[in-house]
Write a structure and sequence with these properties.
With 160 residues, this protein is mainly alpha-helical. It has two domains: 122 residues, Winged helix-like DNA-binding domain superfamily/Winged helix DNA-binding domain (Arc Repressor Mutant, subunit A, Orthogonal Bundle), CATH 1.10.10.10; 35 residues. Helix content is 64%, strand content 8%. It is built from six helices and three strands; from the N terminus they run H-H-E-H-H-E-E-H-H. It has a three-stranded antiparallel sheet. Strand 2 and strand 3 form a beta hairpin. Helix 1 crosses helix 5 and helix 2 packs across helix 3. It is globular. The two termini are 30 Å apart. The C terminus is likely disordered.
Length: 160
């Protein structure tokens, strides 16, 4: 492969990764809408469900990859939907911790079925080898974007 072809391949890959991410998110938003969720709301609930301890609102923003003010608005909507509760943090009365409600757990469980359908629809024709190769390449890129081995990127949270 020539240097020019390599540059073209890298450009093509970077454009495709961005395109696929946008299109995938559009599909998720469309499928989650009947449950009363957007992709970012689902991601927030998912991060809360995975957390071991109480999650402070500003730490949740980092996990989800949002700025503080954007997270405040998103949490306001989740509180109004009764999917989460804010509580004053025990360790710092100036901070809020965020907690899933029973309704939040239920909608998160229902969303897993929807997300599985989207995955199946979009990935159904890929062979195990193609999946392994793609996951390997994307993992390497994500590590670099997050500042891991071979990279000094500026990624934050699961969205990078």
């Amino acid at each position: 492969m020539t240097a020019s072809n390599l540059d073209d391949g890298r450009r093509e890959l970077s454009e495709r990764v961005g395109q696929v991410a946008r299109l995938w998110r559009v599909q998720l938003d469309r499928q989650l809408r009947p449950l009363g969720l957007s992709f970012l709301q689902w991601l927030t609930l998912s991060q809360l469900a995975r957390a071991d301890d109480d999650v402070v609102q500003k730490d949740l923003a980092v996990l989800v990859g949002l700025e503080g003010p954007t997270m405040v608005g998103l949490l306001d909507r989740l509180v109004r939907a009764d999917f989460v509760q804010r509580r004053v943090a025990v360790h710092d009365r100036r901070a809020n911790t965020v907690h899933l409600t029973d309704a939040g757990r239920q909608v998160l469980a229902a969303s897993e079925h929807v997300l599985g359908e989207v995955r199946e629809s979009l990935l159904q024709d890929l062979t195990p080898g193609e999946l392994d190769a793609t996951v390997g390449v994307l993992t390497k890129i994500a590590m670099r974007a997050k500042g891991g081995p071979g990279g000094g990127g500026a990624g934050r949270g699961p969205l990078g």
